[in-house]
Amino acid sequence: MIHNAQLIKQGAEAKVYLAPFCQRQAIIKERFAKAYRHPTLDKKLTSRRVIQEARCLNRCQKAFIDTPTVYLVDVDSSLIYMEFIEGCSVRDYLTTDDGHLPEAQAKVAKEIGTALGKMHNIDVVHGDLTTSNLMMRKESGSLVLIDFGLSYVSNLIEDKAVDLYVLERAFTSTHPNTEVMFAQILEAYGQNSKASKLILKKLEDVRMRGRKRSMLG
């Protein structure tokens, strides 16, 4: 039991709490056991995921990519204590009236594309890029990448293209009429990713496979 913790989100892999830590509000992410797995195997896999998430976050921070700062990693309890980001998600932003201003959207798109390009340059693949996992800080409005629960390190062009495809699908399904904004994201990505030509070419292949799967049902 986490002392004075408020449960704010529960997903398939983890519970997320808001709780005081070292005289500040912090996010505490707790990965829980999977009953269908052998306890020893489950503990090993869960520990690996906790370490991997914390390492990916630290890798991004070292590359000056805005992500939540990791305060503490408790592998035995499957807990990560990290910075609480005060602000709104890009998802919420795009569903407000302000989110529909072309100039404002272009600025956000540029920040998203820039951040993703830099992230892929250091071989971090997010694994769950949605507009809910892109935050805008309340004070500065700057972009923060959050929720690295499915992240991993890979230098494969395919993995990075799939990362972009997942975000594109999130835009298409959640935010109608944002094709221009996503094109702006890819433009900024192209300017910041060292392997952008190869990755964006591979993205076309991934899209084709996605369309074939949709047609086949």
Automatic annotation (TrEMBL):
Regions annotated as coiled coil: none
Gene Ontology BP, a term: tRNA processing
Residue ranges of domain Protein kinase in the record: 2-217
Location in the cell: Nucleus
Any one GO CC term of the record: EKC/KEOPS complex
InterPro entries, alphabetized: Bud32 (IPR022495), Kinase-like_dom_sf (IPR011009), Prot_kinase_dom (IPR000719), Tyr_kinase_AS (IPR008266)
Gene3D superfamilies for the chain: Phosphorylase Kinase, domain 1, Transferase(Phosphotransferase) domain 1
Superkingdom of the organism of origin: Eukaryota
Catalytic activity from the UniProt record: L-threonyl-[protein] + ATP = O-phospho-L-threonyl-[protein] + ADP + H(+); L-seryl-[protein] + ATP = O-phospho-L-seryl-[protein] + ADP + H(+)
Primary location: nucleus
Enzyme Commission identifier(s): 2.7.11.1
Keywords, in A-Z order: ATP-binding, Hydrolase, Kinase, Nucleotide-binding, Nucleus, Phosphoprotein, Serine/threonine-protein kinase, Transferase, tRNA processing
Enzyme class: transferase
Molecular-function annotations in GO: ATP binding; hydrolase activity; protein serine/threonine kinase activity
Chain's role: Component of the EKC/KEOPS complex that is required for the formation of a threonylcarbamoyl group on adenosine at position 37 (t(6)A37) in tRNAs that read codons beginning with adenine. The complex is probably involved in the transfer of the threonylcarbamoyl moiety of threonylcarbamoyl-AMP (TC-AMP) to the N6 group of A37. BUD32 has ATPase activity in the context of the EKC/KEOPS complex and likely plays a supporting role to the catalytic subunit KAE1. The EKC/KEOPS complex also promotes both telomere uncapping and telomere elongation.
PANTHER family attached to this UniProt entry: EKC_KEOPS COMPLEX SUBUNIT TP53RK (PTHR12209:SF0), NON-SPECIFIC SERINE/THREONINE PROTEIN KINASE (PTHR12209)
Recorded family membership: Belongs to the protein kinase superfamily. BUD32 family.
Protein name as catalogued: non-specific serine/threonine protein kinase
Organism in which the protein naturally occurs: Podila minutissima
UniProt lineage: Eukaryota, Fungi, Fungi incertae sedis, Mucoromycota, Mortierellomycotina
